[in-house]
Amino acid sequence: MTEVWSDRFEEGLNPVIEAFNASIGFDILLLQEDLDGSIAHAQMLAKCGVITTNEAIKLQEGLEKIRLEAASGLFNPDQKDEDIHFAVERRLITLLGPLGKKLHTGRSRNDQVGCDFRLWLRRQIDILDSDLERLQKALFNQSENHVRTLIPGYTHLQRAQPLSLAHHLLAYIEMIARDRERLLDVRKRVNISPLGAAALAGTSVPIDRQYTASKLGFERIYSNSLDAVSDRDFAVEFVAASALIMAHLSRMAEEVILWASEEFAFIRLTDRCATGSSLMPQKKNPDVPELVRGKTGRVFGNLQALLTMIKGLPLAYNKDFQEDKESVFDTVNTTKNSLVAMSILFEEGIIFLPQNLSSAVDSDYSNATDVADYLVKKGIPFREAYQIVGRLIKDCIAKKILLKDLSLNEWKEIHSSFSEDIFLKLDPEQVVASRTSEGGTAFEKVEDRLKYWRGQLHSRKE
Ligand code: ARG
What we know:
The chain is mostly helical. It folds into 3 domains: 15-105, Orthogonal Bundle (Fumarase C, Chain B, domain 1); 110-358, Fumarase C, Chain A, domain 2 (Up-down Bundle), CATH 1.20.200.10; 361-458, Fumarase/aspartase (C-terminal domain) (Ribonucleotide Reductase Protein R1, domain 1), CATH 1.10.40. 62% of the residues lie in helices and 6% in strands. It has 19 helices and 8 strands. It has helices at 15-21, 24-27, 31-47, 53-71, 84-96, 109-145, 165-190, 209-215, 225-230, 233-260, 287-311, 324-349, 354-361, 368-377, 382-399, 408-414, 422-426, 428-433, 443-458, and strands spanning 150-155, 158-164, 192-193, 220-221, 267-269, 275-276, 284-285, 350-352. It has a two-stranded antiparallel sheet with strand order 1-2. The longest helix is centred in the first third of the chain and has 37 residues, at 109-145. It is elongated. The two termini are 53 Å apart. 39% of the residues are buried. The structure holds arginine. Arginine binds next to α6.
């Protein structure tokens, strides 16, 4: 008999089934959390008089020894161990003999795996939060340098109105701020202890759930033992929040790809963040944003996998839950890597080309709204002003000229309200400067928001 479970079994597992059943190949990632959770559990058993203080100390020493063994590459569980929980317990029994067999008193792998998984995810959420902040900082630093750089603003990917480039980049900082809020909200529901729910019903062993919860830094405990071992909502919520982060990164990536094209030519990618083609020597490819855009699909897929995995499950633990880990692990991995890559891209991979940007905003009709607004200020109803300018644009397109090419006389022929100051209104800088409504792109408004973000992003110590 090599299995950890009871003597009820007489035969060993079919090796193919054993491999199919095992999660050790991926849940080895939970080793540190499994050790932390087991140490807290042992201390609690001693505190409640279930084992002696001396026994708890020995168990803790054994568990810490496994941590050291792992650090020096000496802890290598295999498929026979089935999962990280059995692997640790088995090693502990080898190290401590019969005492090791006391550790599992008053707990089940069902509450244990829930505990380990939550502890792990909580730590990852904190790392992701600082990765998100890093990206915000990278965007912020670019913004600071580009308050007065203009960029065409688009709707329907058609030139709409010019913007301060900083305003454009700040939009992403706001977007990422929501991502951070969402993750912190998910964290509240990750940070609940299922320990002590045991298999599903609680236990007759006199345990102290609050004690383990506070030792492990959980904010509170599940109030219902069945719910405690059945709940994977936190995993779904986490992957959903990550899916939205990836969607945001993918939108940013798409813009970077467009901007780097010869058609836009708003940015140049530095050699450190772009790749070459194996065949076409002139090419410089935006592989980083393309990969981010591409990897987004994995996280969306993980969300679908998790939702589908839980949808038909009766209470309480079902082995289907073992499938939660790879979806979450891959989500964490993909999201973290994508965030870091995008941060590096904005830190050192993108050079904005102000010359190209300013000639872009100077060679279109994106000041048309301002001409209509000019007439509105002179008392003409907006819809009428809008029609006048519409006809004017049509004429200009036919004559292949821009609004700024019209003479004062021509303006006066269009409408008697036009005078010399219309030329000022047409200037893209002026167009941007005039958008002073709250949240608008006017330079002064952008400066205000930069000030706010400077405080947010640079107040805390690194
Ligand atoms: N490897 C399992 C998982 O990841 C651990 C819990 C197994 N519990 C059980 N009763 N089979 O979900």
